[in-house]
Amino acid sequence: MKITQLPALSGYENLQYCEDAKSGLRALISVHSTKHGPAAGGCRFWNYASLEEAINDVQRLSRGMTYKNRSANLPLGGGKAVIIGTKKTPEMMRAFGKFVDSLDGTYYTAEDVGISPSDMEIVSEETCYVAGLESGEFASGDPSPVTARGVYLCLKRAVEYKLGRSKLKGIRIAVQGLGHVGWHLSQMLYADGAHLFVTDLNKEIITKAVDQFDATAIDLDDIYDVEADVFSPCAMGACLNIDTVSRLKVTVIVGAANNQLSEFRIGDLLKTKGIFYAPDYVVNAGGIINVSMEIQKINNPQYLEERLLALPKTLDMIIALANTKNIGMHAAADQFVEAQLTK
């Protein structure tokens, strides 16, 4: 196994690349900050087109975890890992566990896109710096349902604020991505009487959503053209860009995907268009709250519930800041969190 120290972006603490010829592992770990505790963030399995693309993604994601953990008032810093590839093997996950262990507790890993709780069980054979496990006294399991509930609570608050509707019955919501989080979120929205427009790479899951949620199936690229009240991006990041935002016919954006804005100025564009954007790292913090309990060795449902209910309250504080300063929600969220980071 070969671990190489790479030059990190300014303001980041660590960036390492690992190659293991025996298992085929090619992975990166980015530690953005450990100021408020060990860096925590999931591991993403993705077939990046290049190492440079993976480096850009892991650093962007690790910074997002610092902001997410601080916005949720957790005693954690921000970090992220990515594994580059198309096929996982147990040997690869064990090698990744050794890579995580080499950071001596400055980074805790967990599930993210392409990684399951069973994958983390294999990782845990080589390191104790892992969360999202399904067994053990403090095991938190799959964080997806908890992430979805946090997004749901914030979506309800955003609809109430922007549309003046205290109930979701009849609200039209375009859901992009029906993975673990998107599916659980759609269940909650449907139960509240919302009408769903859904899209996903997996045609079978779309058919299932049509059957179970009476949803309207939409082609992948056409989701941006749907006339709806809410757009809920729950797939990959950077989905909000100059092209897609110009096509949106919604009033509210609240979703589970990380790093939804392709660049900072997109948030300004959303404000100009009168679209309310709930910052992703605020509303999708439910999963890391769940994971943090495992890291802190807390087994208390009340702890989880209190922090989930605090997410829409944090959103309210960011709304107030945005209104006071007449700035976009994205800028207000960053300013809110950066004030917390100085404490």
Protein architecture, described:
It is a single chain. The chain is of the alpha/beta class. The protein has 2 domains: 113 residues, Leucine Dehydrogenase, chain A, domain 1 (Rossmann fold, 3-Layer(aba) Sandwich), CATH 3.40.50; 171 residues, NAD(P)-binding Rossmann-like Domain (Rossmann fold, 3-Layer(aba) Sandwich). The chain is 44% helix and 16% strand. The protein contains 12 helices and 13 strands. The strands form 2 sheets. Strands 1, 2, 3, 4, 5, 6 and 7 form a 7-stranded mixed beta sheet that branches. It has a 6-stranded parallel beta sheet with strand order 10-9-8-11-12-13, sandwiched between helices. It is globular. It starts with a strand and ends with a helix. The relative contact order is 0.12. The mean pLDDT is 95.
